[in-house]
From TrEMBL:
GO terms for molecular function: heme binding; iron ion binding; monooxygenase activity; oxidoreductase activity, acting on paired donors, with incorporation or reduction of molecular oxygen. Keywords: Heme, Iron, Metal-binding, Monooxygenase, Oxidoreductase. The keyword NAD does not apply. InterPro entries: Cyt_P450 (IPR001128), Cyt_P450_B (IPR002397), Cyt_P450_CS (IPR017972), Cyt_P450_sf (IPR036396). It comes from Actinokineospora fastidiosa. Gene3D superfamilies: Cytochrome P450. Transmembrane segments: none annotated. This is Cytochrome P450. Belongs to the cytochrome P450 family.
C-alpha cells in the first residue's frame, strides 16, 4: 500500500497542533500542499535557525526549483503568486544584496521616527471613529482597527490611493487563502500585477515623496539596477509584508491581552512594557505561520533526514516559539514576565525583515493608544469561538468581535 505524505491543512484550523505533530516526526517531514506539491516542512527552532543561515538554502524558485524551472508547476497552481514573484524576498546572492540596499533606504531608524507622527494620526483617526459605537455594542475590531491601520500606513508609504488600497487588500486576502481554486489563483496573480502596474504608471507620470517614486527613479536612472518586474514585485512585497503581518499581530495581541486579564493588568500598572507584549505575542503567535518557499541548492543533511538538492522547504515560523526544546513546559503560556521571549518572527539571517523597526513602532503606538482610549475593552465571544483564517500561511482570525465599553448591568440600569 502506497504511503502518502501528510497534507498540510489548507483551512488552518489548528496550525499549532499540526506543527507539534510534524515536529515529533523529525527534523524535516515531507508534506503535501494544495495541488499535490510535496515540500519539506520544518518546525523546530534549532533546525529552522540553521536553515535560515545556510548558504545552500535559497528563496529563488526560478534558479533552484527544478519543478518550477521545467514547467512541472502549473501556472494556475494555488500558491503560484508566492513563487512567481521576482523581488527582494525571492532572490539570492548579488541580486538579493542589490535589492536589499535599494529598499533599505526606506526603512532606516531615522525614517521610522519621521513617520511616527503619521502613525499616531492614523491611530487616533480610527479610534475617534470607534467612539461613535453605542456603549456595549459589538464591533469587529479587526475590521475597524487592526486591518486598516497598517494597510493605510503602507499604502501611504508606497503612494497608493485609498481606493486602490481597498481593492488591492481584497486581492491580498484571497492570495493568503490556501483553500482557493486554481482559477482564483490565476485571478490573484493577474489582480495584484495589474494593480501595481497601474501604481507604477501613475508614479512615473506624477512622482511623489514615496517609496514607489524612489524605486522608479533608481530603475530609470540605470535600468540594470532594478528590472521592471523587480520593481513591480518589490512594491507588492512591501505592501503585503508591511500590512498583513501587522494586521494579524494586532489581532493576536489584542486577543491575548483580553483573554489574559492578569497579564493586561501588568501592562496597565507598569510591571510589564509594550515591548514585552510585542515579543511575547510574536513568540506565542507569530503572525506568519508557514511561509512559501525555500529550496535546497545542494543536498542538506540534517542528521535524521537529507533534503535532496532542488526540493522545496516550508519554514513554520509559528512553530518556533512553541518548540518545547526552546521554551519548555510553559511554551504555550502567555507570560509577559518571561525572561526568554526568543522568536524568529522577523526572520533570521540574510532575509531578516527590513521593516521590523517600523512594525514595532506601529505595534507600540497602536496598542498603547487603543487600551488607553478603551480600558474596559472586552471580547464579545469566548476566545475558543474566534474563527481562524482559512490559511496555513498566516496566523490570525477572520474577525475580532469586542465590546469597547462594559455592558451596564440590569441593576445599574434600574438605578
Amino acid at each position: 500500500m502506497e504511503k502518502r505524505c501528510p497534507a498540510l491543512d489548507p483551512t488552518g484550523q489548528d496550525i499549532h497542533a499540526q506543527a507539534d505533530e510534524l515536529r515529533a516526526k523529525g527534523s524535516a517531514v515531507q508534506v503535501e500542499l494544495p495541488g499535490g506539491v510535496l515540500v519539506w516542512s520544518v518546525n523546530s527552532h534549532a533546525v529552522i535557525k540553521q536553515l535560515l543561515t545556510n548558504p545552500n538554502v535559497t528563496k529563488s524558485a526560478r534558479n533552484h526549483w527544478p519543478a518550477f524551472i521545467n514547467g512541472e508547476i502549473r501556472p494556475d497552481w494555488e500558491l503560484i503568486s508566492w513563487v512567481a514573484m521576482d523581488n527582494v524576498s525571492t532572490t539570492f546572492g548579488r541580486d538579493h544584496h542589490r535589492l536589499r540596499r535599494l529598499i533599505g533606504k526606506a526603512f532606516t531608524a531615522r525614517r521610522t521616527e519621521e513617520i511616527r507622527p503619521h502613525v499616531v494620526g492614523l491611530t487616533n483617526m480610527l479610534l475617534d471613529a470607534l467612539s461613535a459605537v453605542p456603549a456595549g455594542e459589538v464591533v469587529d475590531l479587526k475590521e475597524r482597527f487592526a486591518y486598516p491601520l497598517p494597510g493605510m500606513l503602507v499604502a501611504d508609504l508606497i503612494g497608493m490611493s485609498e481606493e486602490a488600497r481597498v481593492a488591492t487588500a481584497k486581492v491580498l486576502d484571497v492570495m493568503l487563502d490556501t483553500t482557493i481554486s486554481p482559477e482564483q489563483a490565476q485571478e490573484v496573480l493577474l489582480g495584484w500585477r495589474t494593480a501595481i502596474a497601474d501604481l507604477v504608471a501613475l508614479k512615473r507620470a506624477e512622482p511623489g515623496a514615496d517609496i514607489t517614486s524612489d524605486l522608479i527613479a533608481a530603475r530609470d536612472e540605470d535600468g540594470s539596477r532594478l528590472s521592471e518586474q523587480e520593481l513591480a514585485d518589490t512594491i507588492f512585497a512591501i505592501l503585503g509584508a508591511g500590512s498583513e503581518t501587522t494586521i494579524n499581530f494586532f489581532d493576536k495581541a489584542i486577543t491575548a491581552l483580553l483573554s489574559n486579564p492578569e497579564q493586561l493588568e501588568l501592562v496597565k500598572t507598569g510591571q510589564a512594557s509594550w515591548d514585552d507584549v510585542i515579543d511575547e505575542v510574536l513568540r506565542l503567535e507569530s503572525p506568519i505561520a508557514n511561509l512559501p518557499l525555500r529550496y535546497a541548492v545542494e543536498d542538506i543533511d540534517l542528521g535524521d533526514v537529507v533534503i535532496p538538492k532542488g526540493d522545496p522547504i516550508l519554514v513554520n515560523y509559528a512553530a518556533i516559539g512553541r518548540d518545547p526544546a526552546l521554551h519548555g513546559d510553559t511554551r504555550c503560556t502567555f507570560d509577559l514576565t518571561r525572561t526568554d521571549k526568543e522568536h524568529l518572527s522577523f526572520g533570521y539571517g540574510p532575509h531578516y525583515c527590513l521593516g521590523a523597526g517600523i512594525a514595532r513602532m506601529v505595534a507600540k503606538v497602536g496598542l498603547s493608544a487603543l487600551f488607553e482610549r478603551y480600558p474596559d475593552l472586552t471580547l464579545a465571544v469566548p476566545v475558543e469561538e474566534l474563527q481562524p483564517l482559512p490559511t496555513f500561511i498566516m496566523n490570525g482570525h477572520r474577525g475580532l468581535p469586542v465590546r469597547l465599553t462594559a455592558v451596564e448591568s440590569k441593576a445599574s440600569q434600574a438605578a
